[in-house]
Amino acid sequence: MPPTTFMPTTVEELRDAVAGSATSHPRLLVTAAGTAATTGGRPDPADAIVDTSALSGVLNWTPADMTVSVRAGTPLADVQAELGEHGQHVAFDAARVRRGATVGGLLASGDGGPLRQLYGTLRDLVIGVTVVLGDGTVAKAGGHVIKNVAGYDLAKLFHGSLGTLGVVAEVVLRLHPLPRTTATVALPADAAAAARLGVELIASGTEPAALEWTSGTGLLVRIEGTPDGVHERVDAVLATNTGALVLAGADEEAAWTAVAAVADPHSEGATVLRAGTLPSDGPGFLAALGAAADAAGVTLTSGSSVGVGVHTVALAGGHHEPVLAAAHAAAGSSVSVLRSDGLAPDTPLWGPPPPAVALMRAVKARFDPADRFGAGRLSSWLAPLHEGVPA
Amino acid sequence: MEHSALRAEFVAAIGADAVLDDPVSLRSYECDGLTGFRVVPEFVLLPTDTAQVAAAVAICARHTVPFVARGAGTCLSGGSLPVAEGVVISLQKLRSVLEIDVENRRAVVQPGVTNLDVSKAVAEYGLYFAPDPSSQQVCTIGGNVAENSGGAHCLKYGFTVHHIHEVQVVLPDGAVTTLGAPSPHQPGYDLLGAFVGSEGTLGIVTRITVKLLATPTAVRTLVADFPSVEQAGDTVTGMIASGIVPAAVEMMDALALEAVEASVQAGYSLDTAAALLVELDGPPAEVATQFAEIEQLCKDNGTTKLVIAPTPEARAAMWKGRKAAFAAVGRISPNYFVQDGVVPRTRLAEALVRISEMADEAGLRVANVFHAGDGNLHPLVLYSEQAGEHDRAEHLSTAIAELCVDLGGSLSGEHGIGTDKACSMPRQYSDVDLATMTLLRKAFDPDEICNPGKLLPTPRLCGDRPGPHRAHPLEAAGIIERI
Fold first, then answer.
1. With b meaning 16 or more CB within 10 Å and e meaning fewer, what string describes A17-26?
2. Where in this chain does the record put each FAD-binding PCMH-type domain (chain A) (predicted)?
3. Is residue A279 located within the same domain as residue A367?
């Protein structure tokens, strides 16, 4: 029998669904667009699904304040389309956004895209949040102003929570102006050269919005700004490398599509890992994975935000488990599995827990004392909460 | 616990020289930048490294003794106000820059290093630490982490939370852990993000990996006078509408300008209703284009005088005036309160009109200095203690902060809630919101011994019934005093 599905359209309906199901449906799984259904663990069977995709729509947007509040189930792409009418956007471009990922899901999954170089991730852009906890508590933190230090920043706490603390119901985001001009310069480079070039370009004051390397595209440098400002900086980037090429039109589009395809591949059967390292450790990390992949008959497609040290690696063919193990060995708790299609069901998805794992468990125990949310996600780190699972 | 027994434990853990309990020494730690609140602690500890901080905290935890971490003591909201019968743990002896990683643009520093010293230490590599609170010459990085400090340039660059990779923390039970990661990809709850800005209530930072930025290639700064605050505000609206994100946009009204000129002679006009200080930084062509647009916007909005800083020294002078503004008010008023509130930028004009009306009603003067780009107001309520205006001034100051909430903003943009505004928190957040925040507090500090009485309202501090700010019960009881 398929589990019950709650599909609230308002925060009140969401609260009632959660509060009213404490006894009848204790274990809840939060979903929306389902674009991160495989991120961070294999969910345990739940008694009910809380689908927030009908909890959607922009609530409040005053362009001159550069902030927007939205219901969490709103696809970010829809928000961006609306904001674009006034020349604004959320400076965030995770690959899943094209597949309809929602604002709440993107926050809870801690995802990011190439713009993380200049703008960070949603944790850097979220300024307010409304959450619903397992007992029906509806709580707000932050607010509608960008500068605000009143109270604890619970929005950040829910960043990366993968649906294990409660349901994100509403989100307030800071906005940025759409750049007047953007340009992309491609530089032929392997991972090591791309990391070096990244250091040089940042040090020279080029202020790239994105510094994205993939094995297929080489290093892509995205410059944003005024037309003459972009022109000046594109020239500076071209001067660094004789093979550098300005990409325009379909070529530019294709290059960025290729970057997104590494982070969010369409092919079935893929395993996708994301890891963070010191930027200078990136090439070594990818080399270690490459060696493991060669030994296991796996083909890797890799991409890195070289300026900040975030890497996404797609695995195809062969045995994926040794590559994941190599990633855990090299980057420890900074590795997450975005897709696990190619991994045996009993493969441990999480590496060694971070030093603050005890705090993570304490937060989980306080916010979700009845352990209603997200069983199976972050499971080996949160494990001691679950009966019968060893610490 | 018996004083002498506790003393013996501290001495055994960190040495006799590091344990202060003579009345004269204790008195010098009785308040922070919010000098109206004073509490003499039972001990002041001066640990020299993480292990000593952890040992001191572990002793506090074992005996459930409250402790308060302290950097330079510049907090304007009483965030480092000592707790009676509690311990102050000063981080002043942890003041080394431990590591500079130029390639990865980061540095590892101890919490007692001043904000400006971080930038000075890395300047030779073309790098700097972006958050720049006005007190940056003296305030410490540890304090910046606790308060999520901003500064004049946070419109473009964000706050401290955007510039920290990792922190080593001594938790309220004395355990040492690390929050954050070397890159922005850190799976699991963003505990670092929740910790930064927690006002010292979740633990004590003992080591901080700060993010450094490349020094901008070009910087241009102007000061423009306007016949009215509205025209200055419209100029800022024009910038935002045309998609310009200046590094800084500061506004000062006539009274603030008068104070600054009386104090530091920064070259501001004395015959204007408002002045804007605008700074752009970034790649040269970018800055040149947008700077020309801003000049035009100033003219379109009726600027009466526009001065562009011709040299870095001239720019520094402009900033010296702005950064000295709080202290400068002392030149035109015997006493003053510094307020810190935020309104949505579109409600700035409304807020200023209301503040002016409220000041008239109270028969007091209010000088306004603010970060116009993000609606962060710093009204300075001028009053005379001698003339018996204290209570009226304090009431007006609190009313202004609460007005900000009523206009859809926040009680604080950067100075923090601390002791000062804890009892106003119910104005901004519901009981349920505050109870949910308390869940985070309890996850880190179940016994609530880490900087108790700050940030969140408690019945002890605010009475059983949450509501508008009232006289502090500790004050009424004679435990704390105002000067």
1. bbeebeeebe
2. 1-178
3. no
Q: Supply the ipTM of this predicted assembly.
A: 0.96
Does the pLDDT at position A386 exceed 50? no
Of B306, B324, B342, at which residue does a domain stop? B324
Query: Which residues lie across from B220 on neighbouring strands?
Result: B280
Of the three residues B57, B73, B90, the one that is the final residue of a domain is B90
Regarding whether B117 and B65 lie in a shared domain, the answer is no
3-state helix, strand, coil in chain B (%, to 5): 40, 20, 40
**Cα B136–chain centre separation:** 10
Q: Is B41 helix (H, G, I), strand (E, B) or coil?
A: coil
Q: How far is A224 from chain B (nearest CA, A)?
A: 10
What is the maximal distance between C-alpha atoms in chain A? Answer: 67
Residue A345 inside a domain? The answer is no
With respect to residue B172, please indicate whether it lies within any of the assigned structural domains.
yes
Q: pLDDT, tens digit, for every residue of A301-318? A: 999 999 999 999 999 999
Asked if B206 and B146 sit in the same domain, the reply is: yes
Mutation for B interface: A12, A106, A140, A146, most B CBs within 10 A: A146
Among B101, B179, B184, beta carbon nearest to A112 = B184
Residues of A within 8 A of B161 (CB-CB) are 124, 153, 156
In angstroms, the CA B120 to CA B127 distance is 9
Number of compact structural domains in chain B: 4
Q: Are A281 and B182 a contacting pair at CB < 8 A?
A: yes
Residues of chain B with pLDDT under 50: 466-469, 482-483
Residue B345's domain spans which residues? 333-476
- Supply the CATH number for residue B256's domain: 3.30.70.2190
